[in-house]
Amino acid sequence: MTRQGRRRLYLIGAGLLVAALVGGRWLAVETAERAWDRTFAGGEAVIQARYLARMLQALVLVVAVTWITGNLLIVYRAIGSVQMPRRLGDLEIVEAVPQKTLLGATVLLGVILGTLFSLGAGDWWHHAVSAASPPHFGIPDGTKLARDVGYYVSVLPWLAVLQNRALVLVVGALGIITLLYAVIGSFRIRHGRIRASDYARTHVGFLLACLAVAIAWGAALDPAEVIGGFHGTVDEAALAVRIPGARVVVAVAVVTAIISIVWALRDRPTLIIAGWAALLISLTAGYFVIPSVVRSSTQAGAASAELARRRANLERLAFGLTGAGGGLDDRMPPAFPSGEAAVRAIPLWDPAHVAAAAQTLPHAVALRPPRPDDTGAAWLIAPLLPLTGTATSGPARLAREVDSGLAITTLPTKDGRALFGPPPTPTPTPTRGDDAPIITADSIAGVPLTGWWRRFAIAWTIQAWGLVRGDSSGRTLLWRRDVTDRLERLAPFARFGVPAPVMRDGGDGGDRGGALWWISWGYVSHRAFPLVRPLEWQGEDVRYLRAGVIGAVRAATGETHLWLAPGYDSLTASWARRFEPLIEPPERLPPDLRAQLVYPPDMFRIAAQQLLRASADSAGEGAAVGWFMRPREPYQLGSPRPDGEVWTGVALESGSFAPKQLVGLFAAAITARGPAVHLWRPSPPPRSPPSVPERLPGELVGSSTLRPGQLRIWPVGNSLITVQAQLLDPVDARTPAAPPPARIAEVYVTLDSRSGRGRTARAALRGGEQIVTDTTLAARWERARRLAARADSALGVGDLELFGRLWRSLMSELAPTPRPR
Question: Is it the case that residue 195 has pLDDT exceeding 90?
């Protein structure tokens, strides 16, 4: 065999080896993924979604390679031959490159460039599925386009990615082809005029026409993209100037495409330069120059007020403050009947300190819904999975708040162990068939290791080559034990939050003989929504966010369920139709699990951000700031109602300087009727004594030994109670790895106009000398000011009896009766 033959044989062998490695790896991963997907009821929907994603990627690859290679082959036909200089001793000879080699190089270059131009299409299947079955909100976008808002989160993104990829392919091909023609001398510019051969002019002219058509397509989509937020926040300049300017760009681009075709057929260099100059000028003026000038000179007026009104309505819809099941209620949340009932139910601890006391992580702690026999708040503590092995690190526990601190007890469970949970989770673990957890017919804990090819494929996928051995046959692989990762692979259209533990099916509501489950909210978001300004969520800007899916994983068996959440939105419903029967209807959500649902934390935070932003908008130009949240992070507490849901709340304050004014209470919960969102802004009538305080107590300051707990504010009757603990949590530099457990040092309680502190919440509320009235000069002056204002109102309406009572109270504040010595 000749040297050239051996070289060819080596190249063929290397190519086959690469193909075998790449193809074998792909086949192994596909086998392992299909085996895992089929362990779930409805897992075929996940397989079909993965097929669709790969089909779209393959289609984009084929189109890109065909487009680039076809254009290169057209240039190849224009090349007669390529001469390559070679030196042979002192002689320099020129040797023509064989046509087969040149053809092969052209095709190879086209494949490489086409592959590069096809990258980035991995998430196209999201847009394709949404566009195939678009959601219908039944709400117009509030502009002259009058499209349903569902168009902006489904059809428009799909059209936008297609137009953008078409533009990229045309610009890429035009640049490469023009460069090649310039290299071979068929295309050049002399004295400001284009000089090209007929062959090159025809080719480049038709590419220019394609580019003009792609620009016209983008200009036709531009009005909807502007309204949807693709190009930044919508303002009056965009609505009044850029949208009409886009129509002008469409007309100019169509004319430019015709001119390009004319130039391709007949050499008219002046015409082609004039046409493209007009298109570039219209693009620059319509998209950038004129909107900037109008934006800088626009003054607030009726049109701006109308835009703000429409935007406010759509922002409430986008962030869950309006709509079916999530309307903003201006009534008071369920109030405690008395201060005694409030201090008995309101938690003093928070997840971080409970976790420190129980020596676990905060995400393993969750506030349990209250029960009639509770004497204080109770926290469920789930066991964490060890980093190695399959045994659980401990039993589930319950921490009850008592006067002495936390009373932690063990909760017996049906399963007795935990194999699935949130991070940190161990690596995939094989278990023997006789040691596998008990599973139901439609919920399989892991992937059965049956057959040599499945074992080999899974071993190659997770790099656990011990599974290839024959003794692994008949065992079960516990794969993807991380709850969040498990749920996101089953519902790839959503992102799931931090899971929370719950106890289900217990003989006493979950306290005796229950099963430990992890539940997590699945959030469906989008970067486009008409007229809406973005808010930051998980490190990115979103214009739409709803919690539409609930995922649950049983800690012992891995049994997994996905349900549509109460009050789900139209976008989530369209995704659920695509993933049936994997996504179950909300009616199938078990009642005992529904009763333990907490309002989605991320939805509450982003809704609170929207309220703060809306308050700044309504404050006007003269006000520097709007509302503030107090405390900075939302708190949770048990409901005073007998149904016993958990409420999430935060107080809202206004004012640039301390002390700030109390604005209201923002609270939300998942009730038996669905999501309930309240924004209660108390406004006491002028003829009644003051019940709701105008200000919240000052911030509790910690020290090297004390840590302030969460400040919790909630209605009691017609007033508000605030409860906050000061925890003894010293920082010991000598033993940083094992700090002493925290305990409550003092509790601060305010109710009506009284404030107090004590070792317990009850003592702070009713402890005689421990309940004190704020007698500082500032507090007395503030009470006097309020009494004077209300006395003036009573005198204005002619209520002399009320005026007399208020006058006497005012005098007692201004000149208090001295205590006897």
Answer: no
Q: Are 578 and 129 in contact (CB under 8 A)?
A: yes
How far is it between the farthest Cα atoms of the chain? 125
Strand, helix or coil at 139? coil
> Which residue reads 């509320």 in tokens?
765
How far apart CA 356 and CA 350 sit, in angstroms, is 10
Alpha helices in 491-598 (DSSP H): 570-578, 591-594
**Dihedral, 438, 440, 444, 448 alpha carbons, nearest 10:** 60
Burial label for 624, CB within 10 Å (0-12, 13-18, 19+), is exposed
Q: Among 263, 83, 277, 180, which residue's Cα sits nearest to residue 188? A: 180
Going by the DSSP 8-state scheme, the letter that residue 561 receives in this structure is E
Q: Does pTM top 0.70 for this prediction?
A: yes
Per DSSP, the residues of 743-773 read EEEEEEEEETTEEEEESSHHHHHH-GGGEEE
Element (H, E) at 370: none
**∠ CA 704-710-715, rounded to 5°:** 150
Query: pLDDT for 261-317, tens place per residue?
Result: 999 988 887 888 899 999 999 999 989 888 888 877 765 444 578 888 899 999 999
Structure tokens of 379?
């926290």
737-753 confidence digits (pLDDT tens): 556 778 888 899 998 87
Which residue reads 């109460």 in tokens? 566
State residue 390's pLDDT score.
47
Q: 283-286: long-range contacts at Cβ-Cβ below 8 A with a sequence spacing of 24 or more?
A: 283/215, 283/249, 285/245, 286/241, 286/242, 286/245, 286/246, 286/248, 286/249
Q: Choose among 444, 574, 342, 499: nearest CA to 41.
A: 444
State both tokens at 798.
């002619």
Identify the H or E element spanning 270.
helix 269-284
Name the token pair of 695. 């200000």
Is residue 584 classed as helix, strand or coil in its secondary structure?
A: strand
**What is the tens place of the pLDDT at every residue in 115-151?**
999 999 988 999 999 999 899 999 998 888 889 999 9
Say if CB 526 and CB 153 are below 8 A apart.
Answer: yes
DSSP class of 798: T
Distance between CA atoms of residues 52 and 583, nearest Å: 18
Joined tokens for residue 729: 């949590």
Nearest alpha-carbon partner for 718 in 765, 685, 748, 696 = 685
The number of beta carbons lying within 10 Å of the beta carbon of residue 704 is 10
Distance from chain centroid for Cα 759: 41
Residue/partner pairs of 753-760 with CB below 8 Å, 24 or more apart: 753/690, 753/693, 753/783, 755/697, 759/403, 760/403
Are 685 and 334 in contact by the 8 Å Cβ rule? The answer is no
* Residue 666 contacts residue 634 (beta carbons within 8 Å): no
* Residue range 725-734, pLDDT digits in tens: 988 887 654 4
Q: Give CA–CA dist 624/508, Å, rounded.
A: 53
Identify whether the C-beta of residue 251 lies closer than 8 Å to the C-beta of residue 259.
Answer: no
3-state SS class at 787: helix
Is the distance from CB of 366 to CB of 421 less than 8 angstroms? no
The pLDDT tens digits of the residues spanning 175-188 come to 999 998 888 877 77
Distance between CA atoms of residues 323 and 328, nearest Å: 9
Q: Are 721 and 651 in contact (CB under 8 A)?
A: no
